[in-house]
Amino acid sequence: MIPLRDNIAHRRFPVVTVSLIIVNTLVFLHEVSLGRYIQDFIYLYGFTPKYVFSQAPIMPKFMPFFTSMFLHAGWLHLIGNMWFLWIFADNVEDVLGHFNFLIFYIACGLAASFAHFIMNINSVVPAVGASGAIAGILGAYIVMFPRARVLTLVPVFIFLEVIEIPAFVFLGIWFIYQFFLGMMSVGSYGAGVAFWAHIGGFIAGILFLRLFFTNRSGYPRI
C-alpha cells in the first residue's frame, strides 16, 4: 500500500518537516558525491550495534545513534522515507509546535536506534535511514488522528486501486507488517531492513507523545 495523501490540511507551514526533508536530501547528495569513499562514510556515521562495545571513545561510539537517522542507502530509500514524512509529519508538527516536534522527532529516532541495538546487538552491518524517527511520527499520528482518511494506492489482483482508508487501519496494518517481519528477522544479523527500529520508533512515538503535547484539553480527534 502506498499512501498518496491524507485529508487533513495543516494550519501552519510545516517548517521543520520541510527542513528535515531538505537536510536528508542534502546529506544523501553528499553521500553520492563521495564515490568509492561512501562505504567508509556509512561505516563511520551509520549505526553498527556491535561497535558500541568497541574500545573507541564514547562520542564516536554513540554519535551514530543520531547521525544514522540522516543517512540513506539509495534513492528509493530516501524518497520512500521523505514521502511518508511529508504526508504524516505536517499534522503532527501542527499540533506539537515546531520546536517540540523537532525534539520529538529526534527522540523517536534515538529510541528506534536503541530498539535496533537491543534486537541486533551483535550486528556488524551499519543501519541507516530516517524511518525509525518517521515511525515515531506514525505512532503519534495514529493516536491523534485515528479517523483521518488516507488516500492509498492498493494492489487488487493485477490492478491498482486508489481508495480512502482510515488512518488507524492503514497505520495498524503497517505496524503489524513491521512486527511480523521483525519477528521473522530475530537472530539474523545480515543486511536488510531494520524492522525493530520501525517497531521501536512507532511505540516510542505513542509513549513520547504525552511528554511533548501540552494541551490539557486532550489530543485532537479527527
In one word, what is the shape? globular
Mean of residue pLDDT?
A: 88
Oligomerization category of the chains in this entry? single chain
| Count of separate structural domains | 1
What is the second-level CATH architecture?
Answer: Up-down Bundle
Q: Quickly count the helices.
A: 9
The CATH H-level superfamily is: Rhomboid-like
What is the helix content? 55-70%
Class from helix and strand fractions: mainly alpha
Count of β-strands = 3
Look at the structure and give the CATH class.
Mainly Alpha
Question: In what range is the share of β-strand residues?
Answer: 5-15%
What would you report as the Rg, rounded to the nearest angstrom?
Answer: 17 Å
Can you write the helix and strand succession as a string?
EHHHHHHHEEHH
Unreliable runs, pLDDT <50, ≥5 residues?
none
N-to-C span: 22 Å
Named CATH topology: Rhomboid-like fold
How many strands, what sense, and barrel or not for the largest sheet? 3 strands, antiparallel
Write out the strand line-up for the largest beta sheet, numbering strands in chain order. Answer: 1-2-3
